[in-house]
Amino acid sequence: MGKKRIAVIPGDGIGREVIPVAVQAIEATGAALAFSEFDWGAERYLKDGTTVPADGFPMLERDFDAIFLGAFGDPRITTNTHAKQILLGMRFEMDLYANVRPVRLLDSSLCPLKGADPKDIDFVVVRENTEGVYGDVGGVFKQGTADEIAIQEDINTRKGVERVIRYAFEYAASKKKQDGTSRRRVLLCDKSNAMTHSGGLWQRAFKEVGRAYADIEATHMYVDALCLQMVRDPGQFDVIVTNNMFGDIVSDLAAGLQGGLGMAASGNIHPGKISMFEPVHGSAPALAGKNVANPIGAILTAAMMLAHLGLTREAAKLEAAVLEAVRERRTTRDIGGNLGTKEAATWISDQVSRQ
Ligand code: NAD
Ligand code: IPM
Ligand code: MN
Questions:
Q1: CA within 20 to 30 Å of 209's CA: 220, 231, 314, 346, which one?
Q2: Is this prediction's pTM over 0.85?
Q3: How far apart are CA 216 and CA 211, in angstroms?
């Protein structure tokens, strides 16, 4: 079998710092991968107006096994045009419908909650990734007048809702927790008390899909209540499935439970097709170029990508080295260490090489 091919797109800001060092950490595992880097992002857009080059997405689907992405967002581009076309464009056009965001506390010291135990914070947010308000359908009428109207449609299709819910149940049925126990519960998060049309569709699809999984409890919370419960008693969650926007919001809250955005990993998945992996955090312009960004979110994202490609032994090496770094406090300052991005990542890579 030849080497798996990885398209690497660091993007903007701290993406350009954390992605290269995460690639080094992958290389330290000895995984048989071939990397090709692409310069899509703010600099290229400002230089020649290119966001996604012609044939860009079909090329990725044709020539690669996975995509490893940094972050997009630049204060000079106030419209966020390039990020929408590259990041959201990739999710939509490649139909990467399940945005999988694991929430795992590696060490009690990282969690802002009193007395938090790592075994109690181990759940996943499965976020719908191809529709909702992110379709950006709508318009503005009478712009600039006192009568201005802005309409932002929320698109929920039976197909889109059903497949992401099924993905969440399949995840619960097949992926154990860190401690080896099974995931017993899937929770639907919505706002169906106010948004009755879309909420009704999610509720019906959830009930119908859930019937096929007799061993998994199907539960529900409104998104506001979920936010409260996430900080009061996160141990009750196994798998949370929700729409695009609620998933975006609750996954940043959940990142806080793990030690901040510098720790959070994600995969954008369509089973059977090419998938894309990216840390949950953005380009963090205030941190960019200072060698202070935490590389762990990117390294744990790399581990997710390796596991997805069947390289489970190599993925486990990355996870073990990250855990060791956290326990030894050989980390960046946001999680209590005193190392820079490069030094923290090198410590992890060295640890991987020694395994
Ligand atoms: P952000 O994730 O960039 O930063 C939010 C906060 O988390 C900041 O305080 C930042 O310093 C901190 N943080 C983030 N990553 C960190 C890391 N690796 N180590 C230590 N601290 C870290 O979100 P934002 O400030 O809302 O957005 C900045 C830009 O990024 C915007 O243009 C936004 O649209 C974009 N963005 C892109 C993505 C993506 O490409 N996937 C995700 C989120 C935001
Ligand atoms: C994320 C980001 C993006 C999103 C932004 C940059 C459009 O916040 O990946 O979580 O909202 O999906
Ligand atoms: Mn987000």
A1: 231
A2: yes
A3: 9
